[in-house]
Fold:
Amino acid sequence: MDQNIKQKSKQLAAKLILLNKQLSARKKESVMSAELLKAGAGVGAGLVRSGYAMSKNDRIAKLYKALQDCAEAKYWLELLNETDSLTEFEYSDIFKECDEMEKLLILIIKSIGAASN
Structure:
């Protein structure tokens, strides 16, 4: 697995941990921020699990789960933004990282699928 995407997933998770702490300190929404943290951290966890896949299909399935977690994180970010729980910078910065992660995951999944053809 490319170390770049692993590092990006850790950076995303670290930002989400800090955001969760900030929202708690500001007494902002905690249920959605906890879900955001869970989904965002799940991206990196999925990448780690994919490195231990038993087959190519298992690896693709684990990467799809990471992709789903990424999409879910974007959903929670949008809800937090629409309820004025985030600053514009918090929203745009983290959303951009999730979007980049999503694109990288799609490229990896496609490359694994293409390698089998």
In short: The mean pLDDT is 92. The domain at 3-115 is CATH 1.20.1440.60 (de novo design (two linked rop proteins)).
